[in-house]
Model the fold of this input.
Amino acid sequence: MAAEPTLRDEVMHLIRRGWWQHLFFGIQEPTFKEVTCEVLATIELPKLIPERDYLKRGIRFQAFEDKLDTSLSQIESYLGFDDVEVGQRDEIGLCDLPPHVNRQAFWESISRGGKTYKPRETPATLLYPRKFRVIHALLASTVTGRAEVGAKVSTTDLLCLYCMVHDRKPCMGSIIASLFHRQSTNHIQALYSGPYITRLLRGMDYGDQFRNMEISSSFLPLTILPFMNTGLGARLQREADRAAAGGGGHQVDDDADDDDHDDDDDDVEMEAAAHEAPYDAPPYGTDFPDSWAGMHAHQDAVYRQLSAEQHERFDQMRFEQQDFYREMREDQTLHYSQLQSQYTRIDERLTSMESSWSSFFDDYPPPPPPEF
Done:
């Protein structure tokens, strides 16, 4: 008897399709705050991009004081979503739900409670089965860029969920560009767009410009294992285990059932494809390992390298601080000596004035006493 698929298996079944594995776990880059804020402060994104202009129109921004522009299809290629040469892809991804898809009907198919879907108002807690909650948390911590994973379901979230469920290809360039635009207009709590901006500029041959820049935060290798073992993933897994133990089981959508019985060769092939290294080696360590077990060793190497660099920067800051304090002490000593000399001169002047007044009074005898 085959074992019932776990919550992690159901999540991996969805994100192995298309480009989702690369989107969530393949773009591992640090954030350089200076250039990230420069891009976000200068980005220009057309409000409406018709499909006929998909290969031509995109975004404009400034990076390293250079004026740059790129189309949505080029963004996908620069980020490693496309193996074809930049600008040569003809297939158009979805920028919104297809016209024949009823948004409310699709929402009811992936949620419970029968409530009307309202963009940015409908809570993510209504998503069901639980795998969609995990997918929403992954989206919230990456391309939709929100600090709280239990937030509302946006239209971008709904589009991504639709593409996962029905195995459709979204317009990743539009999704990433929308992330840049949201972070440029909203209050920035965390630079979720930082790794994508870094990878985009590396793809545009600006990788050498990062060598002397200070890293504000490091996007350490993320895998599904720690994500499912902590926070929302762990809690939902416990809920699924309790439901299975109580006989309730776990609801699985029809599209997932169609592919749950693939042969072992397909599973092995998808597992190998899920661990392909990104198009460019990450800035720290080596390429990603070929197995999940090797990811821990890779993370340790990254932490060690980051720790060594942090120690080096700390030593440099300590030496600079010592020089600063030494110069400050020298300035204080000089200033103190100058004040001391001024006090001495003032004291000498007061002494001189006191003696002058004493001699003045000595020259004049006291007045005679009054006569009565």
User: Anything to note?
Assistant: The longest strand covers residues 58-63. Residues 7-289 form one domain.
